[in-house]
Structures are given as structure tokens and as C-alpha cells.
Structures
1.
Amino acid sequence: MRLEQYAVLVFASPKQVRRIPGVQVMHASDFLGLVMRGLRDRKLASRAVPEHLPLIRTLQYVTEYRRTVLDVWAEEFSPDRAVTGRANSGS
């Protein structure tokens, strides 16, 4: 297994990114895209990320259950949301 080192920046523009020898410097959104694409076809049942990597394993769950996650995120922007933050159940 090949390990790569990344410096993940949140508040930086491309002009502010400096080179670090032996380390790939990238913005957080690019890093998340890289990880999520790598996990996209890696099924929990057959190729679960080891438990000692809890953040990557969590992203694997998000990837595996992306339809549910997207549904929940879509509820946030639904016009039928109640003031309480919960979707109206119609009753």
C-alpha cells in the first residue's frame, strides 16, 4: 500500500498555496473530491475501510448511502419545511 502525504487547506487561494517537498498541497474541496471518487465503488460489505481510519470510513458510509444523504440535504431546501426545521408530515 502506498501512502501519500497531503497538506489540506481550507482558507487559501491558488496564489497562497506554497510547495512543500514530498507533500501534495490542495484545497479541502479538491481533497474531498479525490477521496470520495476513490471510495465511490468500494463497497462496505466487501472492502470496508479499516476502523482505525475513522474519518475515511465515515466518508465511505456517506458514499455508500449517498442517496439517503442527498435526500436529507434536499429536505433542508424544501419549500414545505416547517419553521421548526422538520419537514411537514402532512398531518
2.
Amino acid sequence: MTHGFMHKCVGSQYVVASSRKRIQFQQRHVFMSCRMKHNVRLEASENFTQQGLIFNTPDRAAFQETLTKSGFYQTWQAKFGPALWSALEKFTGPLA
């Protein structure tokens, strides 16, 4: 009984094809959600700017350099552990 899943035999293991489709759907959903949030933030910042609000944008390189020198990244790298820190750096690039 397959419980509605399509199975493919790979050697002695079974790969659930529908799981791959679910993951792809979730990835698309997350991407679209992030895109929508970005668009809402952009629209809101444009509206606020037109009303006279000023947004400060820090120099990211200088900010990260200060965090590195202060030991911030080393502290959190130790708290997160290697697996979680590695996952974080996949999105941010090297931090420490």
C-alpha cells in the first residue's frame, strides 16, 4: 500500500517522489512570500520617504567589521554550533 505516494525503487531504497514535489512547492512558497514582503517594504519605504521620513542605510562592511572585532560572531558561532553556523553562512557568506 503506497498511501497515495508514488514510489521509485532505487537499489534497496525507496524514494518518495511526492516529497520532492512538496519540497519544491515549499521552496516556491517561501520565495514568493519573501518577494511579497520585499515589495511591501519597498512600497512602504517609498510612501514614508514621500512624507519626509529619512531612512538610514548603514555601511554593511564597516558594521560587520566592528562585529568581527568585538567577538560577536565568535560568541554566536560557539552558541549555534558548527551545523547551524554553516547553514547560516550559506545565506550570509563567511561571517567570522
